[in-house]
């Protein structure tokens, strides 16, 4: 199985704010790597045998690649918007496929059952019709017109509201979520999931947020998002098979799974197969 398509992608490998000259040892797709700051304070990533790897610093994170990325790191225009608060949520290690972690982030139907009384609640369990497309020009998966009732849509929300979402997959192990911003209804809050594939069935998940919220303490924003993701972790670590099946017949989708179906089709089209299961076993 060739992995070249995913080797040539950018991946998060650490928070820039937490780096020092001593660096940290981690891994990328099974290869040990070192992430540190050089003598000038710039991020530096080295792979096996001291090989210097490509580096970008964006969205609070250091990004690198074991290969030669064919394009720049995907843009998030809101990251340059004045007045937003940028939240480095930290990292959560999950024993699952990096592709499974992204797919779970795209799943709306689990809100009432996994994030009960926060992102969802019974009897509001029905997923309304929404639109999914693979945008050819950007080469990204998008889901739009997603609406869901939420008792507490964000830390800044007071009381339940029907929240609108847009989901975007710009890279195989990254997703960007745009959702209703309670303090500014004309804007979107941005919540991202940047996933670092340590192995095919192990990943570090680095959530990051760009919010309009001048009220909530930074610690509370971080704790709220970590609480949400830790609820997801227990589900992810118990999914069988551990790798993400790309054969449409291996798991039975429902109408609520349109984004997942498009994501799997897009992965298969590009041969993004690290962390995937291609045939039934």
From TrEMBL:
Entry's EC annotation: 1.14.13.-
An example Gene Ontology molecular-function term:
dioxygenase activity
Domain (Vanillate O-demethylase oxygenase-like C-terminal catalytic): give its ranges: 94-269
Keywords for this entry?
Dioxygenase, Oxidoreductase
| Enzyme kind, highest EC tier | oxidoreductase
Q: What is this protein called?
A: Aromatic ring-hydroxylating dioxygenase subunit alpha
State the species of origin: Rhizobium brockwellii
């Amino acid at each position: 199985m060739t992995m070249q398509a995913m080797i040539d992608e950018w991946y998060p490998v650490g928070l820039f704010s937490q780096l020092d000259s001593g660096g940290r040892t981690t891994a990328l797709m099974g290869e040990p790597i070192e992430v540190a700051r050089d003598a000038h304070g710039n991020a530096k990533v080295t792979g096996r045998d001291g090989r210097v790897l490509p580096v970008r610093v964006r969205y609070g994170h250091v990004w690198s690649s074991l290969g030669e990325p064919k394009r720049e790191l995907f843009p998030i225009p809101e990251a340059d918007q004045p007045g937003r608060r940028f939240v480095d949520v930290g990292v959560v290690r999950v024993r699952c496929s990096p592709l499974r972690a992204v797919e779970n982030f795209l799943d709306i139907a689990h809100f009432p059952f996994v994030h009960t009384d926060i992102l969802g609640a019974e009897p509001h369990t029905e997923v309304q019709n929404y639109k999914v497309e693979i945008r050819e020009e950007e080469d990204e998966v998008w889901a739009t017109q997603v609406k869901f009732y939420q008792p507490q849509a964000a830390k800044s929300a007071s009381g339940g509201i029907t929240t609108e979402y847009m989901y975007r997959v710009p890279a195989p192990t990254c997703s960007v979520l745009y959702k209703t911003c309670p303090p500014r209804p004309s804007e979107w809050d941005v919540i991202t999931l940047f996933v670092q594939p340590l192995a095919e069935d192990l990943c570090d998940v680095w959530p990051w947020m760009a919010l309009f919220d001048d009220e909530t303490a930074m610690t509370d924003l971080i704790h709220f998002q970590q609480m949400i993701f830790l609820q997801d972790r227990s589900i992810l670590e118990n999914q069988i098979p551990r790798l993400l099946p790309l054969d449409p017949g291996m798991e039975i989708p429902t109408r609520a799974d349109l984004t997942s179906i498009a994501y799997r089709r897009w992965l298969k089209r590009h041969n993004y197969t690290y962390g995937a299961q291609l045939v039934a076993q």
